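Next comes one such specimen:
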Amino acid sequence: MLGWEFPPHISGGLGTACQGIVKGLGSLPDTKVIFVVPKVFGDEKARNVTFSGANKYVEKHTTILNRKVRMIMPEGDVSQDGFPLSQDNWIYVETAAMLHPYISAEEIEKILIKKHIDPETVRFNSSGSLVVTDKKGKERELKLSFQDFQALEANSGNNQEPKKFEFTGKYTSNLYTETGMFAKVAEKIAEKFDFDVIHAHDWLTYEAGIAIKEATNKPLVVHVHATEYDRSGGHVNQRVFEIEKHGMQEADKVITVSNLTKEIVAEKYDIPEEKITTVYNAVDFKSTPKKKYKKAKGEKIVTFLGRITYQKGPEYFLRAAYKVLQKVENVRFVMAGNGDMYREMIRMAAHLKIADKFHFTDFLDKEEVKHLFSISDVYVMPSVSEPFGITPLEAVKSGVPVIISNQSGVSEILDSAVKVDYWDVNTMADAIYALVKYPALGKFFRRMAKQQVKEMKWEKSAANLSEIYHEVVSSAKDEWKDVKMNIGCSSQNNTNINILN
């Protein structure tokens, strides 16, 4: 199993879902998980799970990433010393990827200009390689060498040795470099273990999953927790989209966390529906905090918890808060989390003149989330596009009535919630008003939802995954039998055939 994060070191819901899945699988007989992440910290724990970090493997085996780098220059270009570089001119450079420096767009642009290449003609292809379009309109591969970056640093007056590559396991500006490196290391880590199935979570690990499949011929399952269409709000990052699509195409089975996501995968990524199976997430959340926050007597707290990005719909929550505060005074709104719209939301609260009733907490850890839920009277998830959404289930487990958008996967299975369209601020405000004004209504939703959530167990999700594992393993065996039969028939007709592993 390939993941990008695992509790307690997480940045969002992906790590929480991975933890739930491996916990569920750990309860099944004869099932063991080797969980590979970019970086292990040593405090990751789960039953019947072996954790393996790419960072630890790299530290012990620095030579595995040494490789020849081929640089292909476009026809008609000239080298630095003035000699023409034709299609047959190859420059081979020995480079250790362990010393791969962090790369910024500005640095790449400087190197391209130095090589007399217009940056506007360069892009990334589906495999993540740089390609350049020549004067004839043909695309040619272009790989930048370690020496290119050394020269860049020398020209900038920085003669220090480049730092050794380190996996962070985070969502940094060097994410593409790290996911590519993870694929190379994960393939080597796979050689250490005996396993039946490869399970890759989200696009960050799809390249690694494909690399392992190609090296081992083991079946690949990719788990779609979100798509680029969910994250981008329509402004799709083409490179991420292509990685996602390639992973889904190469997979033997695609798992989606909701039917909403299944429709997106089928429609936007052109994946056959029979190849896609929905396995809903569950919830494993101990709602009792070590201590409780205090609030003023009679005061109500309405909470938003999540990344403050377009996908999560924070501005709709803020606009609904404004409308509620025109009618009710004893209500405070809390926006917990961080993201690229964080400062914009602070400015918006100030502009609407509700800053005295609207609070920003920044990112909260698990214990702090429990504290917040313990004083919350309503939880709102106004997501524009939410593949699933585990947080409303955590709120319900904490005894908090929830309002969720119709554009969320969790709305498919959580009946005892108030459901609104994310853009319908008036209806959202009416729902918040009703829940804080009439306690009996909140009590009704709280009781009904809590009963329903009891049935949402990770063991159930794990059982569904186990069926998928057995299905792809069985299919792979059948395909191998067909191959052997075909080889047998061919060998009867051709005595000179050689069969190699």
Notes: Residues 458-493 form the longest helix (36 residues). The CA atoms of residues 182 and 195 lie 19 Å apart.
